[in-house]
Amino acid sequence: MVTAGSRGDGMRRANLALVLRTVHRAGPRSRAALTEATGLNRSTIADLVGELQRSGLVVETASAAQGRVGRPSPIVQPDPRVVAVAANPEVDALDLGAVAFDGTIVVRERLDQHELLTPERTAALIADRVTAWRDGPLRDARVVGIGVAVPGPVRAADGLVREAPHLGWADAPLARMVTDATGLATHVANDAALGALAEHLFGAARGVDDVVYLNGGASGIGGAVIVGGVPLGGAGGYAGEFGQNRPGIVDPSDRRAADGVLEDEVSRALLLAAVGRGSGDDAALAEALAGDADAAARAEIARQRRILATALANAANVLNPAVIVLGGFLATLAELDLAGLDAQVRAQTMPACAEGLTLATADLGEDRLLVGAAETVFDATLFPTR
């Protein structure tokens, strides 16, 4: 990008970032379409696209348009050789992927773990896979950084993991550790916040400015809120911990943990146990729930859906979102009868807040956290305006 510090250079950086962000998040565009989308004139767009091409950030390809009079405008699109590595440490595995700037998942691996990951081992495993991929699927790629989605509160200023309780982490300087191990700039954030970002930009909440997102994983339930198109971070960046709220439980027999929080009551582990599986990821749970469940399993599914519905209604009443998106095992639980869960939520939501409310499951599926983690890298590295 531009490195000089004059006011004119600042405007140019902003315009470069605007064009680059447009083709990355809104999709490939002709120069004419970029002119319309950005409000910049044709000559400025031509100049900016030329610089982005020379910087290796975009490529132009021939238009597929046929039968039009005149020369077709080439299509500007993100250069797929620009890649961010993304990781998600959990209690049972380390998920890793390389996400290209055009949205393609270049490579994806799940490293199952039989003991809890430490921050040190997480950094070492990421470094090992980056080295291996650079000799393989990323041989011709330009790796611009690493993003890590962590199941716990993360200090926004420096990527310090304040607490990942299910992993046993406290005040872990994970961003620095991964950077030291890989030599690459690293950005760390809460997993649910990154899932919300991915679904807001590219998935079920695309084009929606007011969103509540709940993510269900092996470590429990996290959440995030987007208000007016802007993520709600809170004073320290810890907002959205829906899993730590104490749900309203009408029937005392539904309670499984004395004074338990939402993630104690709505749990992937409890669902797996109900269908006779001691462990498994979201795919294994979905497969198990798709089969014929016995009466005890059906009762546990119904219990969790009742409690989840109350939690979602509380969120709708407080935040008045346009869409609530569920990811991970919460999506699996909801998709057993999405319309039925929607009705349960609406029955407990104020009519004014229920108007226009949509309950949806994550469009990006198992890729949502990796896509969100990669986006933090692209945003910090490729779109600077100062």
Automatic annotation (TrEMBL):
GO terms for molecular function: DNA-binding transcription factor activity. It comes from the Bacteria. Pfam families: MarR_2 (PF12802), ROK (PF00480). Residues 18-68 form the HTH marR-type domain. InterPro entries: ATPase_NBD, HTH_MarR-typ, ROK, WH-like_DNA-bd_sf, WH_DNA-bd_sf. Belongs to the ROK (NagC/XylR) family. This is Transcriptional regulator. It comes from Microbacterium testaceum.
